[in-house]
Amino acid sequence: MEEYIRVDTCSVRDRVLGSWLWKHDPDPGAESDELSALLQVIAPVSLSSREDGWKWLGDPKGLFAVNSVKKAMAAASSISVEYVLDWNKWVPSKCNLFVWKAEMGRIPTADALSKRGMQVGDGLCPLCKSEAESVDHLFTSCVVAIVLWQKVSLWCRIPPIFAFSFHDLLEVYKSSHVKVVEKPVIQGIIFSAIWCLWKARNKAVFSGIEAKVESIFCDVKSFGYLWFKYRSSNNHISWLDWCNFSLL
Length: 248
Description:
The chain is mostly helical. 48% of the residues lie in helices and 0% in strands.
């Protein structure tokens, strides 16, 4: 009978070389097949008798350095860094974070969840129920979003917002038609509208509440007013001035 090494004295080398101690021999079939596959995987591994030591594989010399970690992370990153989001100072951090994640396609829309292998039903947009839900559709081509951007344009007295992608929305405030002093305000309103659209979407998904453009637009103005008044230096602005977009 083959002699096996005791578990409490068995080394990694012993395991790799095949000196396994089993509670029972592998059953014929699946267990034996898995054992054979495992032995094939570890067959190329060779171990020396020297003591173990630490080695950083991110550096040719094997020495750890923060700079080499940064290089390794940059090389492995699949996220495009070509576009840098300008954060808005007067909207809450949660809005800035959400817009940032949405720009990267990292929010749980139906298409994103489906790619992760999750069941999403018919995958249709919860707001219009006519097209597949994606970041670009939900915030730019959904009929609810289109009407909302029309209302925002009229309210802010800027040219009509025609966005063909989510990225386009983030560039609206940079238009030459927007006054310099109003650029951060327009940007914040765009961020607020994106946030309110997502809230309406979640109410439709989780509470079955139908999304109504007028209600979403009211939320944009209400949240925007409170955030702009109390999170910026414009705490003198009145609700009437805000509704008339009289900022000065």
